[in-house]
Each structure stands twice: as structure tokens, then as C-alpha cells.
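To: structure subgroup
Subject: Chain for Friday's discussion

All,

I'm putting the inputs and outputs inline so they're searchable in the archive.
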Amino acid sequence: MYVAIRDDIVSWIGFKDVVAGVKDLGLKSFELNVGRDLKSKAGFDLSTEKSRKDVVNTLKSKGVQICALLVANNFAKEDAEAEIKWVVDSCVAASSIGADAVRIDSPHRAPNATMEQYTERTVKCVREVLERTKDLEIPLGMENHGVVGNDRNFVREVLETVNSERMGLTLDAGNFYWSGYPLSEVYEIIESFAQYAKHTHFKNLSFSKERQQIRRQPGEGYPKTGAPLYSGDIDLGWVVKKLKKSGYDGDLTVEDESLSNFPQEQRVDIVRKDIEFMKRLV
């Protein structure tokens, strides 16, 4: 296992150059958020084989790599072809640059849609992506994200129905807690899904003692409930141990969403502490 960071976090804390920021933070790997054109706000272009080679050579010269690509698709859209193509193109790019996974999104909520419909649509789209990229080894990591994507039954149904070694999760312990599950149930859920981890996001949250062990509404108190990785309610050391026990040996990607609760001048130091905390866990 190794510690990585989201490119968006690096930019959020004030670094104008993501690679320089990653190195300054003492890391060698980061997750890159790419749009439909396979370009990123951070200035990376993965849209052609030539541009991808240029990115790889540049990063190699600086001792940095991209651990995963982040794709914010939405399979709940009525016309899902553009969403499928975005993920397929990202898989091709990820394979080309040596990334370990493509993070895909859970379906966004749509008017009058049922959980069964979300599940059917997601399974259908994922299977199509896997078929179009069958010659690649890049895994898909569906993040437990948002209201639909954090429903443990939805996640289980999608994984078991797709039933592919290439289909797993971008496991985010903080998101299950954000969605309202009691803390004790969060640990139970993580243990049941650790075997499916292909990629990870690490964040933490903090609730009052009275709110920790009850079922809450999704996003209750957010973002004020956000906490640095080293000081929230979730025992992230326990999470890392469960991932390791399940055979996971990939990135532990820092995604501290508590930073808006602190003055700008404190955010770099908080992220440095997050990183050192995660390194100790590894």
C-alpha cells in the first residue's frame, strides 16, 4: 500500500502546479480528475496517444505517477451512451499511462427512479464498458458516493450481478458515514466490501456522541461535520488493516473534505498531517 492524494485537494490548498504540490507534500502518486475530453483542470491532456506519452515522460522525469483516473459519469441519464464512452475512453487512457484503476461514479438521483432501476441501469452500463474494454486489464472502481451510491444493498447488488474481477469499488469509508449509517454499521459495511476495493478515498467526519450511533439523514451537518483524517470518528487504522487483510495493496488516496472549516493558511499543514498519519498506518 502507498499514500496518494486527489489532484483537486492539492489545488484546493493552494498549489498552482499539481505535480510540484504532490512532491512538496512528500508523495509520489496522485489521482487525476479528467473530463469527457480526457483533459484535466490541472493542465494534463490524455486525449491522444502522443499527449499521453508526453504526460508519462514528464511525470517520470519528476518521479511522480498517476494512480487512478477519476470520472464523474452519471449512468442514470436517459441517454447513457456519452457516459459509457467517457468511461471507456478513460480506461484506454489509464491503460496507456500505467494507472491502476478508473474511478467511476454511482448514479445520481433522478425524479421518480427506483433503486431497482438505478441498479439495472448501472449493471447494464458497466457490462457495456467491460465488453468494450475486454482487451484491457484496467479495473473499474465505483465509488460509494451520494445517496444512491452509499446504499449498501445497491452496492452489493451491482457488484454481485456484474460479477467481474474488473468491477469493484473506490472504497470511501467516510462516505458511508456521511450517508447516515451509524458508526458501528459503517465498520460492518467496510468489512463486507473490503474484498472489492480497486481504489480508495480517505476522508473522516466527526459527530457528537449522541449522533454517532444513530441513523442520520444523508449529509447531516456537512461540511461542518468534516474532520481531518487524523481526528475524526472513524478509526482509519482499522480500515487500512481490513483492506490489507482482504488482499488490497493499492493506493490510500487522501481526500480531506474538512478543509473548508479551516482558514486557508492552515490547510497545507492539515493535509501534511493527514499524509503523515496515513503513512504511519501503512
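Points worth raising on Friday:
The chain has a mean pLDDT of 97.
The domain at 2-281 is CATH 3.20.20.150 (TIM Barrel).

D.
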